[in-house]
Structure formats: C-alpha cells, structure tokens
Amino acid sequence: MTTVNSSSSPEGVESPKAADPRRWWALILLCGLQAMILLDMTVVNVALPRIQQDLGFTESGLAWVVNGYVLMAGGLLILGGRLADVFGRRRLLLTGVAIFAISSALSGFAVAPWMMVIGRFGQGIAEAIAAPAALGLIALLFHDPKERTKALGLWGGIIALAGTLGYVISGVLTDLASWEWLFFINLPVAAVVLILLPRLVNESRMVRENNAGLDIAGALTLTLGLVGVVYGLLHAAEHPWGSALVMVPLIGGVVLLVATVLIERRAKNPLIPLDFFANRTRSAINFVTLFFMAAFISYTFMMTLFAQKILGYSPLQGGLAWLPLGLGIGAGIGLGTGLIPKLGVKVVASVGYVGAGAGLFITSMVDLDSSYVGGLMPGMIVFGLFAGATMPAATNAALHGVTVQDSSLASGVQSTMQQVGSALGLAVLVTVAIRYAGDAIATGTDPRIAATEGYTLAFRIGAALMVLGGILIAVLFEKVATELRDPTAERLEVEDAA
Length: 498
What we know:
By secondary structure, this protein is mostly helical. It contains 16 helices and three strands.
C-alpha cells in the first residue's frame, strides 16, 4: 500500500489530484451497476400479483417482497458507507455485488415465499454495501469541477431513469416472459462488474490512526435506530398511526438515534463525526431529499394504480406509459448539468424543486375522463424535466465540503435519506389517499371517483412538499463548490489495482 498526499507523492505514484485515464470507463461501469441495483427496487412492483399467485404468498407476506428490501437498505446504508471508507471502497463494492448476484439468483429460483423474502433481504443488504462505495469512488475519480458535474449528472440520471424504466421493464417481462427474469437479468451485469472493476478502479480507504478501533456501539445504535424508523413507517402504510406496530418501532428507533448522537459525542473514533452535519448545505439537501422522495415514490406508486385500476391499462401499457417521464428526467438532467456551472447548485436545485411541484399540481387535475396525452402526459413531462434538473445539483450538494476521508459516508447518508423519504411517502401520502377514498366511499361516493380524488389530494400534498423544499434550498444553501475538498493536511491511502 502506498500513502500519498495532495502536496507531494513518491516517484511513480499518481497523486490523487491527477486524472485517472480509466475514470470514464469506470464511471460507465459504476452507473451500470447502480442501474441494476435500482431497477430491482421498482421492477418487482408490477409483477407482485404474478409472484403472489405462483409462490402462494399471503397478503401480509407479499408486502415483505418490497418491504424487506427497503428495510435492509434504509437501515444499513450509512453503516455501509462508513465501512467502505474504513475497509476500502473497491473491496466493499465487490462484496456488495457478489451478495446482490447470489440474492438475485435465490429470488429468481424461488419456489416458496421464504426463498423470495430472503433473496429480497439480501438484495437490500447488497445495496447498502455497494451503493455508497460506488458513489464514493466517483467522488475520488473526478477532481475537475466541470468533469465532476458531468459525472454526477450522469450518475443522477442513471438513478432516475433506472427507477422509472423499472416499471417499463417489469411490464414487458411480466407480460412477455416471466417474473423470474426480473432477477436473472442481474446475473450477467454482476459478472461483468466483478471481472472489470478491479482493472478500472484502484483501492482507496480513509487514513486511520494506529490501532483505531471501530465504534461498535455507535454502529449498533445507528443501524437498529434506522431499522426501527423505517419499519414503523412501512407499517404506517397499513395500520393506524397510533397502533403498537407503528409507534413502538418508531419511538424505539428515535431513542436509539438519540443514543447514537450521545455515543458519537464521546467516542474516541466515532462512526460518524458529528461535525459532518455542521455543513449547512449538505444537511439541508439531506433533509429536503425526504420531501423529494416522498413525493416522487408516492407519485409513481399512485399513478400506476390510477392507470391500471381506474383507466384499465394492462401491465404492459402501464409500464410503457412511463416513457415520457423517463425522457423528461433525462432531458432535465442534461439541462441541470449544463446550467450548474452558469447558475450554481442553489439556483438549479431550488427552481427544479418548485418546477417539479408544479408538475405534480398539473397531475392532480386528472379525473375519470382524462386521456393519456391530455391528462397524464403533461404533468409527467413537467415533473420529469424539473425533477431531473435537481438530481445532479442534489448530488453535488450532498458532497459539498466532503473530504476524501468521508466520501462514501456522504453517499450513505444521502442514500439513506432517499430510502427513508420513500418509506415516508408510502406511509403518509399513500395512506392519506387510501383513507380519504375510504371515507368518501362510506358516504356513498362511487369507488372509482373516491380513489381518484384520494390520489389527486396526495399529489397536491406532494406538490406542496416540493415547493417547500425549493424554498428551504434557496434559504439554507451556501455557495457550493463542485470539487471534492482535499486539503494538503489530509491524506488518502491508494492501492494499485490487483
């Protein structure tokens, strides 16, 4: 292992500031990996009825096909990010990919519910290990501000498109093949990553003091606290907020997170240094990410139900209907990436949030007689365009002021906020829609009208959250540099690729 710093380096050893000629190939590979991981978060949704029928799931058991993934990812992402910083980002990434491949194979070959659920838990664990390490590596590969903006724009675009196209791919495979292929398609991608990544990316890890042990107590309380919060939110989508299934894990999770703060304040080698959250811009984007993901996930979930249950679309038609959103997100990412050097991260992110809110408000005008072109598509395009523009800006803000010591930790925190925001959207916005519809049906309203009114109410709440997020960004963000901070006093350990 060779230790280098930003001011000098031994002969024959590349400085961390020097551009790695393999960086763009590595970026393509890492983006492909992230697309594979994120596709599995959405592709299963459309196929759930077929999976239930073939494997004999109960209604409560079927929920864990989705919830098991979200629970593991949401609870372990921050820990996964810090472990990548400590033990090596490339090493943790390859470990995560291997676990993801094994879990995907188990899910694809499942002949009983327990096999599917274990496979989905494994996929969530794999994301928590691999995703922060991947973004941490990108943060270290691209030092030039313009290159970094482009790289993070591409990364954000792949995330958004993968999440959206998951519905398209799921509809196609479910209708034309079988749900097993939703998992089998991961295996060749994982094999390519395992073969090529060691040839494209050097190992890197944070510099630690001699004999510095891991903060085990902080790791346990943080992980169990996040698991408790996510578990409670997942149950809030199906049970009253005052029920024990919701309140016990939520309160327990919050208590454990408070305990984590107390432990980290006293720890000699804290898992997460508390001054990590002192950066106003980084903390603000992580907070408003809760609003973004709550609105985004609830929108895609409820619009899928509206298209199939109210408008009568087939799974294939419902999947293909999302193409304009994917195109809008792609165009928005390109627009945001180009505007960040001219207008700055604050302006692009703030305007993007407000514009995405406008798109959700347009969507809230749909009714039983809405056509696809005149009813669903306008809001979808506006929302996709502005939401896409926020994505490279948000990723830059999440890495604002991050040192080479904490690049994967920063990624883990941002990814955790995305998972918690998703669970929050399902727990709150979707629940609001369902309960509003239930109350309306009890008064004699036609069920289809009641469901539609519930969806549109939730869309308007999501729009308000997006606008509020845009306002908070405008108020709280500092001027954001697009370059990873690498003071000369800080060092990065770099190992040559095997």
